[in-house]
Amino acid sequence: MNEQRFPTGWDEQRVKRLLAELEARTDEEWIAADEAAAADGGDQAVITVPSSLLPEIRRLLASHKTA
After folding, report:
1. What angle do CA 39, 43, 49 make, to 5 degrees?
2. Which of 7, 8, 25, 31 is 20 to 30 A off residue 15, Cα-Cα?
3. What is the pLDDT of residue 10?
4. At residue 25, does pLDDT exceed 90?
5. For residue 36, what are the CA distances in angstroms to 23, 26, 30, 32, 62?
6. pLDDT tens-digit profile of 29-57?
7. Is 67's pLDDT higher than 70?
8. How far, CA to CA in Å, does 10 sit from each of 4, 18, 23?
9. Cβ atoms of 49 and 57 closer than 8 Å
């Protein structure tokens, strides 16, 4: 059996609480959360891309160095 590892400050109970909260969200709540994140005005963007491009995009993001 593999030992489960959690980030600092996290444990199994915290993960279960988060999962329960996310699973209880309605479609409207998910949409509102997405819209709020997109309207944040930060230095990020939300785009739609073909699924076939995801591996290359993930590779680029993983190698991106922030200032």
Report:
1. 75
2. 31
3. 93
4. yes
5. 19, 15, 10, 6, 25
6. 999 998 888 787 777 777 899 999 999 99
7. no
8. 11, 11, 19
9. yes
Degrees to nearest 5, angle at CA 31 with 42 and 15: 85
Say what the pTM is.
Answer: 0.50
Gap between the Cα atoms of 50 and 9, Å rounded:
36
4-17 b/e with 16+ CB inside 10 Å = b? eeeeeeeeeeeeee
Residues 19, 37: Cα–Cα separation, whole Å: 20
What is the secondary structure of the chain as a DSSP string? -PPP---TT--HHHHHHHHHHHHH--HHHHHHHHHHHHTT-SS-------GGGHHHHHHHHHH----
**Would you say residue 66 has pLDDT above 70?**
no
